[in-house]
Amino acid sequence: MTQMSRLPSAPGREDIDLGRILGLLLRHKWWILAVTLLFGAAGYVSALLKPPIYEGDALVHVERRASVSPLGDLATVMGEEENTSAEVQILRSRMVLGRVVDRLALDTQVSPRRLPLVGDYLVREGVTREDLAELGWMTAPLGWLERLMPEAWDLSHLVWAGESLQLARLEVADSYRGAAFRLVAGRDAGYQLFGPDGDLLGVGRVGDTARFDGGDVVLSVREMTAAPGAEFSLSKRPQVSAIDSLLARLTVTEQGSGSSASTGMLRLTLTGTDIDRVRESLDVLAETFLMQNVERQSAQADQSLAFLDEQAVALKASLSSAEDRLNAYRVEVDSIDLDSEAASVVEQLISVEEQLNTLDFQEAELVQRFTRNHPTYQALMRQRGILNQEKARLEERVSEMPESQQEIVRLTRDVEVTQAIYVNVLNRAQEVAVAKAGTIGNVRVIDDAYVDDDPVAPNAGLMMALATVIGAFLAVAVVLVRGMLNRGIESPDQLEDLGLPVYATVPLSEFQQRLVKRVKYRSDRRSQPVIKGLLALTQPTDMAIEALRGLRTSLHFAMMEAPNNCLMITGPSPEIGKSFISLNLGVICAQAGQRVLVIDADMRKGHLHSAFGAKAESGLSDLLSDKSEVAEVIRRTEVEGLDYLSRGACPPNPSELLMRERFTTLMEQFSRDYDLVIVDTPPVLAVTDAAIVGNRVGTSLLVTRFKLNPVKEVRVALRRLETSNVRVKGCILNAMDPSARHGYGYGHYVYAYQ
Which of 216, 321, 635, 722 is most buried (CB neighbours < 10 A)? Predict the structure, then answer.
């Protein structure tokens, strides 16, 4: 069966970018999948470990409030409606929530000490101290850890399922507000209390009220169910902090508020981790809101009643004074009676005076509620102006009467008006007193608190899905960012844009990676890869070897016009596969019937000898320094027709040795004795050896590694070789990952036979 994949030409930059992105994702698909699954699992585990959040609600109705003001509901008179939003703000106020905090002691926190991360989950699952003891055999292999960290491994101080602590009272001085105390359970219902600094404050017993630190801490434990050594953290938060915490969990919404009229139906929603605590908090909140409403109504009635009583006393005195003046005048003028016209004027004046006095009472109340520029207050002032005009008109009629009639009219008017107002005030005072006695407020609890047994959060499915999406996004982002930051060559087109023909695109071979071992010599700062075998011999059908066979064919024609049959294999940087190309190309050419010599010209760190299981001694450096003869250093291999020359002993001056005439003479001799001479050189950008060797050979090829050598680095290497009059014939793109992209360049085929 034959498999053929063609790498088509890139049509444009957009397609190249899309193909590169797809290639990056395909290349790292398993890493992306692993990160995605890891995030999904983390999201699910996080949802399991988080405490469940329960939600409860209650419904209250704020009715239109019946007025207990001295003169009725002014808002109704003036066309003004009450706003339910004011009641919502009262419900969320510190006045109401503060009472709830005080009644339920929400500012007192009791936190049992549990295992980090998983402790709460184990308690929710019902793991007791006895269950932990039964599992002791599972932790036996970790005894060394217990001996190493006895305090951290001691589980006796932790609180497990079925163990709890309930406080009846905790009072601390202001300086201790927010500080954490540590309570350690003891035997026989006893306990020890430690201060925030860790010092022992004293001991106490369940049911007793104990005072510590000179009375700054008062503690009474109602009930404690815990094994000796179990620890609890106690703290008294500032009231404002507790109120803010309660407010953050409380939501107040008006039901059916979409209509123009306010319904007054308020839905109270509260969340928390304890079902009973949420239900109790909602009930107390609704009750506190109702009670403050009743107290507010009663307080308003008290104010109105006090005002009416004060006015009644003053009016009674005024009435007595007016009656005395009228009787005295009658006696003085011998009891003058009013005619019908005067009686009518008096009645009208009395009516106007009553209305004006009523407006005076209304003004006194409006001043407490509104500014003088408020429309309601301005309307009252306009009404008073009309009444004053009517009063002036009537007084003008009185002034036209005889003097005796005028005086009797005025005195009679004072008596009648004062008496009418006095009677009205007494009646209103009785009404207010009755209203105060039956004050029930305008708030009713419609639905008591209800908490569903099913938690509203966390949603394990949603959290896992969200974490999975985030994990996939981050994994893809990391792959793409790394790919964008990696400016290494990824396509033969990038090399051809530099004017270099690509003679071969060698795929990355997994088998070759197994043949490479990292070795660190004493003189090296870090380890370096060393080839321990020949891929062309162990895996002759590998894709990389097939690519080198194509290179062998291309070189046959490329070297026909070369001055000699010597080939230099070099590259811009180390560890790009120059030795791999040189060795396996030599094997392939030898298998084709050629006599091939592979020379290790890297006299600093060359390791071609390692591929044949030999040592570096007696090689090129010894030959150039006239320490050995050619026949002594040329080594045969198991491949017929393939010889190699190791680097020899590492000399102090490799470049100077290569510049000697001896090297030129040797290359000419090797060219006559062999069909192909392959010279493996050091990196171009590291040393000048490649430039020297390039002037002694007929053909030079530059090896670049996929995603490792940037285009700029290749350009600099070419410029350095050109400066030394070395013309690079072409390039080899090595270790290309076929899964990284769908298309690179054009005219490049890869064959595999199965």
Answer: 635
Gap between the terminal Cα atoms of the chain? 6
Do 12 and 734 contact (CB within 8 A), yes or no?
A: no
What's the one-letter identity of residue 388? N
Three-state secondary-structure class, residue 117? coil
Q: Indicate the pTM of the whole model.
A: 0.58
CA angle centred on 74, ends 68 and 389, rounded to 5°: 130
Q: 3-state SS string over 363-404?
A: HHHHHHHCCCCCHHHHHHHHHHHHHHHHHHHHHHHHHCCCHH
Name residue 683's amino acid: P
Q: Which residues contact 140 (CB under 8 A, 6 or more apart)?
A: none
Q: Could you tell me the strand order of the sheet in which 642-645 lies?
A: 502-507, 730-736, 699-705, 566-570, 676-680, 596-600, 642-645, 635-636
Burial class (CB in 10 A: 0-12, 13-18, 19+), 144: exposed
pLDDT digits (tens, 9 = 90+) for 262-303: 678 899 999 999 999 999 999 999 999 888 877 766 666 666
Residue 267's DSSP bridge partners are 59, 253
**Do 20 and 490 contact (CB within 8 A), yes or no?**
yes
Q: What is the DSSP string of 501-557?
A: -EEEEEEP-HHHHHHEEEE--TT-SS-EEEE-S-HHHH-TT-HHHHHHHHHHHHHHH
Distance CA 431, CA 442 (A): 18
